[in-house]
Amino acid sequence: MSGYQIRYLESQEREDVDIFNTIKTRRTVRDFKPDPIPKDIVHKLLQTARWSPSSSNTQPWHFVAVQNRETIKKLGEIATQGSFIGNAPLIIVVVMDRAFRPGVDAGRAIQQMELYAWSEGMGTCFVGFREVDQQRQVKELLNIPQEMELITTLPFGYRIGRPKGQGVPRKPMSEIAHSESFGNPYSPD
Amino acid sequence: MSGYQIRYLESQEREDVDIFNTIKTRRTVRDFKPDPIPKDIVHKLLQTARWSPSSSNTQPWHFVAVQNRETIKKLGEIATQGSFIGNAPLIIVVVMDRAFRPGVDAGRAIQQMELYAWSEGMGTCFVGFREVDQQRQVKELLNIPQEMELITTLPFGYRIGRPKGQGVPRKPMSEIAHSESFGNPYSPD
């Protein structure tokens, strides 16, 4: 951002619009306000997924936006490893259809949604289904063809208060980043 | 952004800082200025990857930042499907190590880098390696353990001019987004 902008933005507000700081301050969120997500925000969330890049522009994805309380409650019962999704006002189910790189393409769309959601005061937490039987149940509940690949039932809701602390710890940069060649630890200097 | 902020931002500048518009205006970039990427920007790019969420916070990734011209030239020769990477001033190689969800975790980190890069006037284009022999060559060149999973050699560079047009076409929203249940086309109204 230019100095011109910075002068006119309060520091907390600036943090919310600058993309680097959005990425830096984002936290995984499992507790949501019960408030429904306005229609125009749901639409923008789906747009951020739709505009994501994909392998050879195949767009091999489907997004099911669930807001019905009964359906969300049932999804929370199936998701024993992430039952908190049952309290989210919105779940976007991500499904891949004959994708060459289902994980990468889905991951990029998911992250666009997560960052946009964060900038709107919302949060999310990835919930996958490792058990084949759970996947079958989710697909049956939502009428998703069984042959498609269920990636996640991604909950969205407004955050309760500001996140505290530093978030989950990260490995040191020198352990995961390498300079020019693997094994040569990256250093910012 | 609040109305307060919007009043003080010129429309083009606002487009660059607002995360929704960053996502909306982002394009895949294959032509780069030869200008090197400043050290602090490389560092911030790696930070955006490091701060990405991952399955059970396993952080199963490695990022190799390559700026050596000879190495980049060789990567461009190996990447016959994306030889333009040979002209990028920076390549970040993404490698996953015993990841449960290598694609999704990599995709989320990649997208954080891509969006931050875009906000800095840079661009990128996903280049993967479908051929086992190409993967072997990249790993040998960069000393990456052969058992790790090579996801992409992601080029970064400053964009040449403003992108023209609408970008690659997207499927209609009603084709990929569903309301409450698969097969019930989503409509914004």
Task: Outline the fold blueprint.
Two copies of one chain form a homodimer.
Chain A: H1 3-8, H2 11-17, H3 19-25, H4 39-50, E1 61-66, H5 69-78, E2 90-96, H6 102-119, E3 122-123, H7 132-142, E4 149-158, H8 173-176, E5 177-179
Antiparallel strand pairs in A: 1-2, 2-4, 3-4
Short descriptors:
homodimer; 189 residues; alpha+beta; NADH Oxidase; 5 strands; globular
Biggest sheet of chain A, open or closed, and with what strands and sense?
4 strands, antiparallel
**Strand arrangement, major sheet of chain A:** 1-2-4-3
How many H/I helical runs of chain A? Answer: 8
- What's the helix-strand series of chain A? HHHHEHEHEHEHE
CA(first)-CA(last) distance of chain A = 24 Å
Strand content of chain A: 5-15%
Oligomer category:
homodimer
Query: What's the total count of β strands of chain A?
Result: 5
CATH topology of one domain in chain A: NADH Oxidase
Model description:
2 copies of one chain form a homodimer. With 189 residues, the first copy, chain A, is α+β, with helices and mostly antiparallel strands. Chain A has a domain at 33-160: NADH Oxidase. Chain A is built from 8 helices and 5 strands; from the N terminus they run H-H-H-H-E-H-E-H-E-H-E-H-E. Chain A has helices spanning 3-8, 11-17, 19-25, 39-50, 69-78, 102-119, 132-142, 173-176; strands spanning 61-66, 90-96, 122-123, 149-158, 177-179. Chain A has a 4-stranded antiparallel sheet. The radius of gyration of chain A is 18 Å and the shape is globular.
